[in-house]
Amino acid sequence: MYLKLNVAIEALIDRWYAWPHLVSPATSALNVIERHLKIMESYVQNPKIHAAAVKRPEMIGGPFIDYKGERSDEIKLLCDFIKDKRSNMFEFAAAINNLNKLLQENAVGFSLEPLYNEIPEILKGFVELYYDLYNNPNFRFYESLLYKSEFYHENAQSISLQMISADNDRSFVLSTPRLDDAHLIHLDLPFKNSIIDDLFSMKRKKGDYNEIKERLAIKNTQEELFRSFFTEEPPKEYQRYLGNGIRTRYFGHACVLVETNEISILVDPVISYDGYETDVPRYTINDLPEQIDYVLITHNHQDHVLLETLLQLRHCISNIVVPSSGKGNLQDPNLKLMFNNIGFNNIIELDDMETIELEGCVITGVPFLGEHSDLDIRSKLCYHVSLHNKFKVILAADSCNIQPELYQRVHQYLGDIDVLFLGMECDGAPLSWLYGPLMPEKLDNDKNLSRRLSGSNYDQGKSLIEIFKPKNVFVYAMGLEPWLEFISSIKYTDKSRPIVESNKLVRDCNDNKIIAERLFGEKTIEY
């Protein structure tokens, strides 16, 4: 039988939707304590406030659980379970706060060597202390050791399976845990378990239903639902690109497939589901090659490292290219380590202006400015892809062109391009929305609001176009597609600044004989 194309997997950690900061041990502890538990405790105290808040579109991305003011008893049980079973997370998070306090009070420019004895006991052997060149103290983790310690809770990992029947089926992932439900099957499986690969390969290749059911240990009470996930009808066959040129396909958000008849490159995989009625056309998994040569990840945010899609595609990905990180800074967990520990063994790290050279293809990492609230985060790259040295494209994701001089220097090396993919979500959430749980002290509100998770505006985008002189410009990575609301929480109006700014850029390009478009749903371009 075949797995239906609208069967979704959610990777969960203690029933919360998994993203890289929930996998890496240090950021996981702080997110659980400073985000999850606070949201759940608030819900238990007053579920009606949450129910009212989630009805307002502008509050979708806020810290509000979407269970209509119901199921507070189950939320309390989950809260109590985490407090009991993950008690060392509390010790770990407290130790991080105590270490920060120790450094701020005692590291005043003298040697840090005596302070190693004062490091909280459970952090000893996991951290290095250091000064920057202005004598500001800080510490870094030996993150690889954390993954081998009791602070990496692999037994907290599970998956849920469900059929998607509408684009707005699911609640926002950063604020609503996944409780038991009649339409869900929860399975206690670590993400690295290869049975996930075997299951999702059945979306393309016929497999043995009874064998997969037994291997997943599906209970008798679950079998009717599980059986409904399968069909005897084969999916449509993928039409491989056989032309002599290049084909690019937009799959939604920042996901772009670049193909020749020799190679396939997929950027920031976020794939919609098929098999239900929708007003918005889209490409789905059956519009992907059966083997993807390279997946490129631009940066470590939940809408660009979507484990839900990556786990489904793991069996058919040859290589994943990720930006190298800052080597142990709390706010910048290492993507290669994360992927390796959840069953991806084909990871290549790339630095700024470093290249991967293949026959007929060169992939270059391009510096990525902005969108990280001015934090010291290195795990971010734009990508320049050159095919047969004839077609050149830059995929800039959410990079914000704060300093055009940087890209002028990049242009001196890489030259003009044919196509620019540029993100223009130029409002962006404030720093605290994503990184708040990691901050030892809360920022003043005006400072917090000034440091945004934002991409380029009109002026910054126009400057980038003037530098690289593309023939085509595509505005993307806006979170516009309806199937992305559960991960992005974004809803625009015609007056929203990102829409106004991107409209202006598209008009300006077209007035200057540069073909431009803000992408939505799906798009195929052949060269």
Notable characteristics:
alpha/beta; 17 helices
Give a short synopsis of this structure.
The chain is α/β, with parallel strands linked by helices. It has helices spanning 20-23, 25-45, 47-53, 72-85, 87-106, 143-147, 195-201, 209-215, 223-227, 307-313, 335-341, 404-414, 431-435, 445-450, 458-468, 485-488, 497-511; strands spanning 2-3, 7-13, 16-17, 127-131, 137-141, 157-163, 185-187, 230-231, 247-252, 255-259, 264-267, 292-296, 317-323, 347-350, 355-358, 361-366, 382-387, 391-395, 419-423, 472-476, 515-518, 523-526. The strands form five sheets. It has a seven-stranded mixed beta sheet with strand order 14-13-12-11-10-9-22, with helices on one face.
Q: Please work out how many helical segments DSSP would assign.
A: 17
**How far from one another are the termini?**
38 Å
Q: What portion of the residues fall into strands of 2 or more residues?
A: 15-25%
Major sheet, described briefly? Answer: 7 strands, mixed
Radius of gyration: 23 Å
* Spatial order of the strands forming the largest sheet: 14-13-12-11-10-9-22
Low-confidence stretches: none
Q: Assign a percent range to the helix content.
A: 25-40%
**Overall shape:** globular
Mean pLDDT: 95
Structural class per helix/strand content?
alpha/beta
Per DSSP E runs of 2 or more residues, the count of β-strands stands at 22
